[in-house]
Write a structure and sequence with these properties.
The protein is mainly alpha-helical. About 40% of the residues are buried. Helix 4 packs parallel to helix 5 and helix 5 crosses helix 7. It has a single domain, classed as Glycoside hydrolase/deacetylase (TIM Barrel), CATH 3.20.20.370. It has a three-stranded parallel beta sheet with strand order 1-2-3, with helices on one face. A two-stranded parallel ribbon has the order 4-5. About 45% of the residues lie in helices and about 5% in strands.
């Protein structure tokens, strides 16, 4: 997204507990991100698929349903999702753009750990079908599955309960629809995900609370750490506490709590590794 976001992610990895990130191949600071990731092979990197709020990878003339003449997607995720269902010819153009972004990632030479999506657009049923179809060709072995336990989220913070209820219903339905398709395609995913209902506010206090109650299995916690700059402020909601999220990931108290609880830090690279 920006040089400041890149810097924050690298700091959270080198000085904190972050193990995984995802790359917006059409972001403003793409070249900087690739250079930083290539210099930090311990950081696992996936594709942050962009099909809304950004620029395309395929030539705009080849995907006119998806973008304007300048190659820019629309900014309204729900409206885009509806169009991606019902517009004639859209599936072929989505496949063209998805594979173009995968091609651009592969060209970096970075190992592809997983696929997730900007505003979780990768969970759109049409997009999931395309990802499952092309996964083997691109070596995709894992996908983020947004199943953030609602009860735990509301027990921590009941503010914005309506938004959280909507997210749980919408993404819970999408996850249930996607799960058998991911299984047939041999794509792995964590058992659960945290941070979606707390988006923009994954603070030290939240992480300490979560670590103390984490159930067995593989859990993903995601956030939006950054050293905020003008480009990040342009796209991120004004209430996002990206600096607090960065501090939380670098917190010695968080690291100590993980060690005390016997929690192993892994990445999508490890999760998606072939068995045996």
């Amino acid at each position: 997204m920006s040089a400041g976001v890149n810097a924050g992610i690298l700091r959270a990895h080198r000085d904190g507990v972050l193990t995984e990130t995802s790359l917006m191949v059409n972001g403003a600071a793409f070249d900087d991100a690739v250079a930083r990731a290539q210099a930090t092979p311990s950081l696992s990197v996936g594709l942050h698929l962009m099909l809304v709020q950004g620029h395309c990878s395929a030539p705009p003339r080849e995907i006119p349903i998806l973008v304007d003449a300048d190659g820019r997607f629309g900014n309204a995720p729900i409206w885009a999702g509806m169009r991606y269902f019902f517009t004639p010819g859209v599936r072929q153009q989505l496949r063209r753009e998805i594979t173009a972004q995968l091609d651009k990632f592969v060209a970096t030479g970075l190992p592809l750990s997983h696929v997730d999506g900007h505003v979780t657009i990768h969970m759109h049923p049409v997009v999931i079908d395309i990802l499952c179809d092309v996964a083997a060709r691109y070596g995709v072995r894992a996908v983020r599955l947004p199943r953030d336990p609602l009860g735990a989220a509301l027990a921590w913070d009941r503010r914005q309960a309506a938004r959280k209820l909507f997210e749980a219903a919408a993404f819970g339905s999408l996850a249930r629809w996607a799960l058998p398709r991911l299984q047939r395609a041999g794509l792995r995913h964590p058992d659960r995900l945290y941070g979606m209902h707390q988006t923009g506010h994954v603070t030290e206090a939240y992480l300490l609370h979560l670590i103390a109650a984490l159930p067995p299995g593989v859990s993903e916690v995601y956030g939006h750490p950054a050293e905020l700059d003008a480009e990040a402020r342009r796209w991120r909601p004004a209430d996002y506490a990206s600096d607090a999220e960065l501090a939380a990931l670098c917190s010695p108290r968080v690291r100590a709590a993980l060690a005390a609880a016997g929690i192993e830090l892994i990445s999508y690279r490890a999760l998606g590794a072939p068995e045996g």
